[in-house]
Design a protein that fits this description.
By secondary structure, the protein is α+β, with helices and mostly antiparallel strands. 19% of the residues lie in helices and 39% in strands.
Length: 157
């Protein structure tokens, strides 16, 4: 029997396109391991949640990390690496809450993606990040983002 893809939680989240544009939304439940001694989500956990969001955002656009690292499609083996992060911690989250990590493209150049990521609990914005990632070869050489990925992310090939 096929899984019903119209209900949460989808393992890789969802790509959504509406009047506000295209974005990826990933649900995340808060577990004990995500919290600190005070019972609030530890600050580094938000960075991990955003990493999951970015990974699934790329996966659902047809560019998972394993395929990049393996050099699928005859491309040079590569990976997206974080170059810069700007983080804003706005409100706390607690154990057992379900949050959503939203990822969208803010800007794209030949080799970089600038992504906006927001972690919310219902209507409340808890955390915001602007993350610049660069596509690099295994040797560390900056590589051009493939035409196909640029196209599906909204850039020109």
């Amino acid at each position: 029997m096929a899984a019903d893809t119209s209900v949460w939680p989808d393992l890789s989240g969802r790509l959504i396109e509406d009047d506000s544009g295209r974005r990826h939304v990933l649900p995340v439940r808060i577990y004990f391991e995500d919290t600190d001694f005070s019972g609030l989500v530890y600050h580094a956990s938000y960075v991990r949640f955003c990493e999951r969001g970015r990974s699934d955002f790329l996966r659902l656009h047809g560019n998972d990390h394993r395929a990049l690292i393996d050099g699928a499609g005859g491309r040079e083996p590569a990976a997206f690496v974080v170059r810069r992060m700007t983080l804003e911690f706005l409100k706390p989250a607690r154990i057992d809450e379900v949050l959503e990590v939203t990822t969208r493209v803010r800007e794209m150049t030949a080799a970089t993606l600038v992504l906006e990521q927001v972690v919310t609990r219902g209507p409340d914005r808890l955390f915001e990040a602007v993350v610049t990632v660069v596509l690099v070869s295994q040797a560390g050489k900056v590589l051009r983002i493939a035409e196909g990925l640029r196209r599906v992310l909204g850039g020109k090939g």
